[in-house]
Amino acid sequence: MTQPQPQPGILDIQLYVGGKSSVQGVPDILKLSSNENPNGPPASAQQALAEVASMLHRYPSSDHSGLRAALAELHGLDAQRIICGCGSDELISFLCQAYSGPEVEVIHTEHGFLMYRLYAMAAGARLVRVPEKERHVDVQAILAAITPRTGMIFIANPGNPTGTNISDADIAELIAKTPKSVVIVLDGAYADYVEGWDGGARFVEAHDNVIMLRTLSKMYGLGGLRVGWGYGPQHIIDVLNRVRGPFNISVPALAAGEAAVRDHEFVIQHRAQNNAARAYLAKELAALGVASDKSDANFILARFSDQAQAEACDDYLQNLGILVRRVGSYGLPQCLRITVPDIAGCARVVQAVQSFLEKKP
Q1: How many C-beta atoms surround the C-beta of residue 187 within 10 A?
Q2: What are the pLDDT digits (tens) for 248-306?
Q3: Are residues 227 and 319 in the same domain?
Q4: 274: buried, middle or exposed (CB in 10 Å: 19+, 13-18, 0-12)?
Q5: How many domains in the chain?
Q6: Bridge partner list, 336
Q7: Buried b / exposed e along 327-359 (16+ C-beta atoms within 10 A)
Q8: What is the pLDDT, as a whole number, of residue 211?
Q9: Are residues 311 and 184 in the same domain?
Q10: What predicted TM-score, i.e. pTM, was given to this entire model?
Q11: 119's torsion region: left (phi>0), alpha (psi -120 to 50) or beta?
Q12: What are 130's strand-pairing partners?
């Protein structure tokens, strides 16, 4: 019997699977699988959320003016060139809708964020995967992959799930040698954890084909509300607003997002806590023989001897209520991505990994 058929390529998309949040029969879960802020959202955001509870019958602002103004003030940007989305994932979707499609090539790196691939495939684009150098973005490999069909390049900085960073010099070289008709997307979901890094705003200001993406899900602890934003040339922002639904961010999300963005002290405190705990976790695991690259995010990518050992360690940790993330789908089957908890949580992870290694024959 004939039935409706999706567009070519849709059925080739592998469903995205989020990090585990529970294990049946195991209490005292330490969830380190989704790169969430262990402190939760700022108290200011929680208060703002409560204050709009009586307004849920009202449609949200369609222009997100309050949130855009807060972001512009914090980062010294032009509010008219900011676009907000239901997480930065939605903005990735908009970009693929607007600037890719059949016969258009979209470049992503070997271990790049999965959603670049999924949304590009949904738009019918051709995926071009370029290698990284030891889990670091290789600008020369990207430049070598550009063809007349290239429409967009996605780069996460810091990377997910690698945590590694790209230098300003490398970004500048990439932009200088890329045709101006190609959209370069600098995804800074973890930029808030890098002291002094503006997520790429300086490059956006200087070029007509560069856009940066940011999120309030990580540093600001608002993953459950889904608030992301982008900053780009006016002509790109105008295009994206044409494919954006008018009410794509809810009343609670807008209120909590604006309050969080204005809570500067929260960011300062959590960045310091995260970066100290991250250094401790990486050092202690390295002492056990589990290496990781220097991370500039709120997680580390722990490397084991092979896939079997990584998966066995994950199974062991799950039995103890510690949930981390396997990253075989990112081409890193021998690794586990571990969100950085507080110091007590770090100590629990280290102790568990040590116990696992000591028990292995």
Answers
A1: 29
A2: 999 999 999 999 999 999 999 999 999 999 999 999 999 999 999 999 999 999 999 99
A3: no
A4: buried
A5: 2
A6: 302, 326
A7: beebbbebbbbbbbbeeebbebbbebbbebeee
A8: 98
A9: no
A10: 0.94
A11: alpha
A12: 109
